[in-house]
Amino acid sequence: MIRTITPNRAVVFAVLAFLAYWIAALFVPSLILRDVFNSLAFGTAIIITFTWWPSAVRALREGADSGEWQLILAIFLVWFVVLAQRIYVITFNWMGRPEAWSQAPISGFWPYSYMIAGLLFLSAPGVTDERIGSRAVWSIVMAVAIGSLIAGILIGASISTVG
């Protein structure tokens, strides 16, 4: 039997949604788009965080010793951080974008938190018998190595050679 080729509805929805944003961006000022979608992302993050909270608590009770539990924790952690970040960004914009906030250590906390969740995502497929498999360990090592290389390049590029 020949299987017909049909597009995945989720992929089609995502592509159309991304296109709709850029079409709207042609007509709607960027600050309005920012405020609207910060608020919508905030609302989405609230519901996802509360929806995944019971599973995350159960994962912690179970010791998060399987890939499935680690994925649950990673999903919860990503959306909890998104929720916290949206609160920060909405407040930051509402307060007039204070310069002191721009230079605060919290700016580095967001990508750090996403990295921690990402490491849970990378380790999850390799967890068996409460151990992380070597393939997952190498995925983690490569992720950190690539990030470190990019950080080194960015730091090196920002160092002034003129004395």
Automatic annotation (TrEMBL):
The chain crosses the membrane at residues 12-33, 39-57, 69-89, 109-128, 140-159. The lineage of its organism: Bacteria, Pseudomonadati, Pseudomonadota, Alphaproteobacteria, Hyphomicrobiales. It comes from the Bacteria. The keyword Transmembrane applies. It comes from Shinella curvata. This is Uncharacterized protein. Keywords: Membrane, Transmembrane, Transmembrane helix.
